[in-house]
Each structure stands twice: as structure tokens, then as C-alpha cells.
Amino acid sequence: MKKTIIVSSVLLVMATASFAQTEIASVKKQEKATRHQLREEKKEARLVKKEEELKEPTYMAAQQFSIDFPDATDIHWSKKDFEKASFMQNGKKLSAFYDFNSKLIGTVSDASFDELPAAAKKHIARYYPGYTPQAVILFDDNESNATDMILYDTRFKDADNYFVEMTKGGKNIVLMVSLPSDVSYFTNMNGKVR
Question: Would 123 disulfide with which of 75, 114, 179, 183, CB 3.0-4.6 Å?
Fold first, then answer.
């Protein structure tokens, strides 16, 4: 009888200890996942700069803009990586980006999927089945400025390119299409804006 009580007590202590270890391991795993998630959120917050509206652009950027776009109307300035002037010209909405030396890097304008080269549309249909184009923009590079441009929080080499925002089942990506019609994956959207 004594043996049975002792064995039962030992088994009860072992079961309790095992349960406690399992519970502690589960709590530690959850804490680790939470710490990882917080680190990732902080990292993302550092990477994603907010575009701030500017009441006034720098004097030099404003002067250069008036030379580059004398017919511009409805002008709004903002800054993220570069000074950006959003404006209307000849009935078309444009954005012009100026570097730290107030030199034009290039312009961005809305485009349509139909404007892409035929070979690029064929490539997209073949290699990105099920994706739907949401928006298309055209980056027109200022060839006399070697500053690399940043769109969708991603730097790229100077060149005229289309950028095609695509979606499929909640996944949002951006493709870059060069004017000779080369298509390449550019970035995923994940909260990124142009």
C-alpha cells in the first residue's frame, strides 16, 4: 500500500512538473514570437518614411521647378526621400522629383496597361497568371541627372520605366517594365506607396 501511495505521489509530481514545463515552454514561445513581431514592426516603421506635406519647398527647388514647368498649375509640394511637386500641366497630373541639389530627377505620371509594349503585356500574362493590374505609372528620367530614383521605398537606376501594380489573392506586387519591354519583379507593396 505504501508503495502504491509513493508511486502515485511520484507520478503526480512528475505529471505536474511536465505540465508546468510544457506551459512555461508555451509561454516562452509566445513571448519570443511577440518580441519578434515587435522588432519587425519597429524595423518596418524605420524603413517606411511618411511623406510630409511642405508649406514651402526650398527656394532653389521652387526656382528650378518654375523653369522646368512654366505652365504648371495646382502645385502641391511634399517631401519624403526627395522634394516632390505634384501638379497639373496640359490637363495631365504629374509629379516632379528634385534631389538635394534642387535638380530634377524625373517625373511620374499615370499611365494605362494598354500603353505598355506588346511584348511586356505578353510576358506579364505568361509569367504572372491570375494577377490583375491595378495601376500603371510612367517614370520619365531626367537623363542629365545621375541621381537614382526611389519609388515604392525601393531605389533603382536611372531609366525611363513603367511600374505596374498587380494584385492576386491579397498579394500586391510591383513590376518594372523598361521601354524596350523587359519585365522584372520590382518589389512587393506591403504598405508601400509611390
Answer: 183
- Per the structure, the complete domain to which residue 154 belongs is given by 52-188
CB-based contacts of 174: which residues, under 8 Å, 6+ apart? 152, 163, 164, 165, 166, 186, 187, 188, 189, 192
* Claim to verify: residue 70 and residue 121 sit in the same structural domain: yes
Q: What are phi and psi of 2, to 5 degrees?
A: -60, -40
| pLDDT, tens only, 11-46 | 565 656 666 566 666 666 776 666 666 565 555 545
- Please tell me the pTM assigned to this model: 0.71
**What 3-state class would DSSP assign to 164?**
strand
Grid cell locating 170 = 491579397
Query: pLDDT of 134-162, one tens digit each?
Result: 999 999 999 999 999 999 999 998 799 99
